[in-house]
Design goal:
The protein is an alpha/beta fold. Helix content is about 35%, strand content about 20%. It contains 17 helices and 20 strands. The protein has helices at about 5-15, 20-25, 70-75, 95-100, 100-110, 115-125, 215-225, 245-250, 250-255, 265-285, 335-355, 370-380, 405-420, 435-445, 465-480, 510-525, 545-560, and strands at about 30-35, 40, 50, 55-60, 85-90, 110-115, 145-150, 155, 160-165, 175-185, 185-195, 235, 295-305, 310-315, 325-330, 360-365, 425-435, 455-460, 485-490, 530-540. Strands 13-14-16-15-17-18-19-20 form an 8-stranded mixed beta sheet, sandwiched between helices. Helix 7 (about 215-225) packs antiparallel against helix 10, helix 13 crosses helix 14 (about 435-445) and helix 14 packs parallel to helix 15. This is Subclass B3 metallo-beta-lactamase. Keywords: Hydrolase, Signal. GO terms for molecular function: beta-lactamase activity. Its EC number is 3.5.2.6.
């Protein structure tokens, strides 16, 4: 019988270390047939399954980093070619199951398929911060050739048909895969059961995770999904959790029929449900409660334009549930910081300054990307022509210049989403940005100004790409006679050039106050009938401190007095 791995220990004892588990994850294991054209090619601690056909093969999971050569050798030992693998399917986006996929994809040239949440992690190589196990998760080599699949989508390859069954909860992107295999005139339903256990890293809560508030509901739904699958042969992502080694021991006498267990999925679900109950009891007794912002919601959004996954955070006014009216709506960039700040300021201005209430929408960074990587790429209008930057994400080249497409994503996908799900007054949309976020706002203003009625833009990075936005402002003026929008500009009085330095269009020599005055003056000089701008400089504030003041004064400008 195989050595019990880290996860199994955590199920029994509640704790273990990653290092202790890693050795067992890579334990050697000869490959063997499971049923028909389906083979086990994983390690002694982590499952990987090969489904074969004359048209090419499908591999499910790639084990931990370092397991790729062992899995490839298993494929060859069975008489198949790694180069004939056309698709690699991912169960979930943890490094112990996906860490070896990049190397196997490179060997085979296969396309990697995964749920949208998993695909985002695989493309970036960075763990999902929403994951309850996040602090203990390792980065992986990014995989560019990755495509997201839909729940219920059937992956077809010649005679093969493998169905994706989303089973989130253990991770946001967890996916169980099902197909059929035949031998000896009998056809069996095969299930690759992804993990459905409710686990959290030390210091984090599974059920009270503010970044993944639906984790418990998701895992309960996923357990029910697995429980009701047509299931004759089950291979779980961690093989011992579906009693694979006990069944393997009977293969010598029973043949592949040893793996047939029509109650396998129900037993697997029962174990997961029992562990969920244990987790809930433990967190109820010992875990501190997370602080949750009242009247807030989180929605996952897959951008069709960008083929990336994002979230929108929505804060509803206190009167929303008890009224039928529509509310002005703020769209706030850099949501990790900007959303809670904007929510709190909007609420205080309503309660204590008599301003009308508003819906606040926070625009997250792309899932799987760091804040620096995501905002550099999504908020900037061009690729810098002279300045050079280092990537903050190992294995990924630095990216810039996608503000045009990201702005279209906001206007064409996020805004309609909010309009269709909430009582938002879509005639009073307010864009809020700061720094690079304001650069994005200017890009929208100069390309699709009517996307928002009002813009609150703090400390825009007008030095970016040698002042490219000044060039774009001139180009707009040459092509247009009007600009229908109102803009509130704000900046800190300390965002000036140090004494003795010569001003230039570069980050290190920029006078951001002078730049903004110059840009505002250029807009005013055209006397657009539909444009109104206002600029305020806040004394004794710098780039880091000014945003709350810019937002407060901007909201006082654009929100009406309610009383």
């Amino acid at each position: 019988m195989k050595t019990t791995i880290c996860l199994a220990l955590s199920l029994a004892l509640g704790a273990c270390t990653i290092d202790a588990g890693a050795a067992d994850w890579n334990a050697p294991q000869d490959p063997f047939p499971l049923y028909g054209n389906t083979y086990y090619v994983g390690t002694g601690g982590i499952s990987a399954v090969l489904i074969t056909s004359p048209a090419g093969h499908i591999l499910i999971d790639g084990g931990p980093p370092g397991a790729s050569n062992q899995i490839a050798e298993h494929v060859r030992k069975l008489g198949f070619k790694v180069e004939d693998i056309r698709y690699i399917l991912n169960g979930h986006e943890h490094f112990d199951h996906a860490g070896g996929i990049a190397a196997l994809q490179k060997m085979s040239g296969a396309t990697v398929l995964a749920s949208p949440a998993s695909a985002a992690v695989l493309r970036s190589g960075q763990p999902d911060e929403r994951d309850a196990q996040y602090p203990g998760l390792q980065a992986m080599t990014p995989i560019a050739k990755t495509r997201a699949v839909r729940d219920g989508e059937v992956v077809k390859l010649g005679p093969l048909a493998v169905t994706a069954r989303f089973t989130p909860g253990h991770t946001p992107g967890a996916t169980t895969w099902t197909w059929r295999a035949s031998e000896g005139g009998k056809t069996m339903n095969i299930v690759y059961g992804d993990s459905v256990n409710a686990l959290a890293a030390d210091g984090r809560s599974f059920s009270r995770n503010p970044l993944y508030p639906n984790a418990r509901a998701d895992v309960e739904r996923s357990i029910a999904t697995v429980e009701t699958l047509d299931c004759d042969v089950l291979v779980s992502a961690h093989p011992e959790l579906s009693d694979l080694w006990e069944k393997k021991a009977r293969q010598a006498t029973l043949g592949n029929a040893a793996f047939v267990d029509r109650d396998g999925c129900r037993k697997y679900a029962a174990k997961a449900r029992a562990y969920l109950a244990k987790t809930m009891a433990a967190e109820s007794d010992t875990a501190p409660s997370a602080y949750l912002l009242d009247d807030t919601e989180v929605r996952d959004v897959h951008s069709q334009a960008l083929n990336r996954d994002y979230q929108v955070f929505v804060a509803l006014p206190e009167s929303y549930r008890s009224s039928a009216r529509r509310y002005p709506v703020l769209f706030v960039t850099d949501a990790a910081y900007g959303f809670p700040v904007a929510r709190s300021i909007a609420q205080r201005l309503s309660k204590h300054a008599g301003l009308e209430e508003a819906i606040v929408v926070g625009l997250s960074y792309a899932k799987g990307d760091s804040a620096v990587y995501s905002r550099r790429r999504d908020y900037t209008p061009s690729i810098p022509r002279t300045q050079s930057y280092a990537s903050d994400t190992p294995g990924r080249a630095v990216a810039f210049g996608e503000a045009q497409t990201y702005g279209a994503f906001i206007a064409d996908e996020v805004v309609p989403l909010i309009g269709s799900h909430y009582r938002a007054d879509m005639r009073r949309k307010i864009f809020v940005g700061h720094s690079y976020g304001s650069l994005l706002g200017l890009q929208i203003l100069l390309t699709r100004p009517a996307s928002f009625e009002h813009y609150i833009l703090g400390s825009p990075s007008l030095w970016f790409d040698r002042g490219v936005m000044f060039d774009r402002e001139k180009a707009y003026a040459q092509a247009h006679k009007d600009m229908t929008a109102s803009v509130f500009f704000g900046i800190g009085g300390l965002e000036t050039l140090a004494a003795g330095k010569k001003r230039s269009r570069s980050e290190e020599d920029a006078d951001m106050v002078a730049d903004l005055r110059e840009f505002d003056a250029a807009l005013k000089s055209h006397r657009y009938p539909g444009l109104a701008t206002r600029l305020e400089v806040f004394a004794d504030e710098d780039h880091a401190s000014v945003f709350p003041l810019v937002l407060t004064h901007g909201l006082r400008t654009y929100l009406k007095k309610a009383r």
